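Q: Entry one of two.
A:
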Amino acid sequence: ADGRTLYFCSNRSGTWDIWVTTRAAKGQPWGAAVSLGTPVNSKAMDVAHVSPDGLSLYIGSARSGGHGNVDLWVSTRVTTEDNWGTPVNLGPTVNAASGEIYSSISADGLALFFSGGEAPPRAGGLGEADIWMTTRKTKDAAWETPVNLGAPVNSASIDRAPSISADGSMLYFYSDRSGNDDLWQVSILPLVDFNGNGTV
């Protein structure tokens, strides 16, 4: 969020692992990339998205112990100076037999967008891969049953790799619906309980 730390996926070590690079300030050159190593990286493919506060790392991984061929996991730390902890599977409510990967967490930590149905398709989806969302009431609460974003966000094609803008007003994602591998965007419209009666 401060533009000084970049997490990315690379196969430079022979497997798809998560790496990080930092810089002293925006506009300064990036330092040497460093692999996050174990326990964050595994022998399987690992891709990740860091939370805006830098304390949670949501990982899409085919590591053992999951519920499908690729699952979502989370590694946490107390401060940005601490090492990342052992990843914990988000559990069967979020992860299905299909592949869940490429996630993006909202700034408040209460909404998680992710790609589901990488292979095989996730039940209730519209295409080969769709974008789903799960929410929780507090950061300590369990994630609720994911919902498919539906049309027009999802299509009969591959729709994946969601990324929420910093202000939460826009969702960016990948889709091949036009016959090309393109980036798309859609605005996020907030639901507001104007009179506080519990109805939006």
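Q: Entry two of two.
A:
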Amino acid sequence: TIQIDLTADYSKDTSNPVPSVLLAIAPLPFFPPAAAADIQDPNDFYRVNASNLPFARNEVFGFSGTVTIDLGENATFKSITAYRNLDGFSTSDPDGTRFRLYDQNTDTDQNQFSQELQIAGNAFNDRLEYLLGAFYFRERAVQALRLCFAPISNSTFVPFGPCNTWTQGNNQKTESYAIFGQGRYNLTERFSVTLGGRYTWDEKDIVSTQFFDFRQDAVGPGAVFGFGFPPALLGQRIVVPIVSNLPDSASFKRFTPKVGVEYNNQNGLLLFASYSKGFRAGGFNGRLIRPQANVPSYAPDTNDAYEAGFKSEFLDNRLRLNGTVFFQEYKGIQQTIADPAIQFRVANAGDARLYGFELELNAAPVQGLRIDAAVGYTHSEFRNTILPIAGNRLPFAPEWTASISVDYAIPLGTAGTLTPHVDYRYQSRVFFSPFNLPFEQQGGFGQANGRVTWQDSTKRYSLSVYGLNLTDEEFYTFGQNALGAQGVAYSYLGRPREFGITAGVSF
């Protein structure tokens, strides 16, 4: 009547993240004139100019334990306990030039603990399926970011030369509590109703610290004025505490309901509709670059989501067709924006609306062959905004997406199975920020990938050869038009065509 499952995991990833490239520059007083020569050449897409090598190291480990107790009378008690730790370090050069305009490295230490209790079961002759529970979460995150910026003005603008520094640190603790419940009642053999709800309390505490170090060789006046310092500081080597151990705290609470209906004709067709409310807690903007009385914060946002659709199966489950239409409304939606006082911050930008549909097809016409295809449409726009973004599309929300993949397992007798796989995915234009600015978007493009996998007859060993982005599509994954705030616009490169081999063993 008691089952205990224990899990432990460890991973260490040392790699070079994709670099950024300079798309445009609006020279600030401390920018070397030669930096403009590092603007990306569209005919040499993957050529990178950088003053450091992007590097990342992430070490993660965790433990979890699940205790399940059979309470009898169609009821089960479950306790889920988990702990996770992250130790990370990364470097980057977002400006994409050979000069130290904005080089940074970041140390991150984070750990979290969670505890969840559940009681689940059936009642009323199995017509009611229910789940009741409570949840606790605690996180501690400490991050130190060091920015090397503004090459020293009389250093003759030599690439990789000395620069001024800004060190920013944040130490935040988050605690979250919740109680929740959901029930699904079968009114008839074919028709059911679902009701659920969750009440969440979030508490956040932060200590934010900032330091500037202007070197003796002086810094361009644009940098000094831009960060709020008087001209008298020019030519002095100083360490100025902008904010020293500035603490703040905030709490957020919200009830979020859910209601749904389902109709199952018990002949391969399921119809459903639902309404649910989402809640995202507020937080702090700890990346200050000017003196503040407290750590600026942002409020929660909510999302009312409506969904209706169907799931169907035909030809002895060898053909499945699923479809969904959706409508969502955000209130006080959280968005990342540029701000002269905080550089980049999260703000409650106003309201937003999304609607669209998704269709999915899964087919297995003959033994060993599987075809999956999907198409989706999303209309998104900001509404009732406090920023000049009304009518703009939401970031990373393409209007159209489409994908198809094909797998064919070829039996090799005692030698195992050989499975070729090909897939293709297309997405239309996306914007990287709510402002929909030039240099912050990626046009529509598609990617084709392929893989051939061999698996032995015992399914213990496997070997794969793969190719990604086979047509070598050139694209960006993210970009920022910070010409006004930082004098540069830059984007991060998508991965070019690549090939590889993977091997696996199960035991």
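A: Comment on entry two: The longest helix spans residues 221-226. The mean pLDDT is 90.
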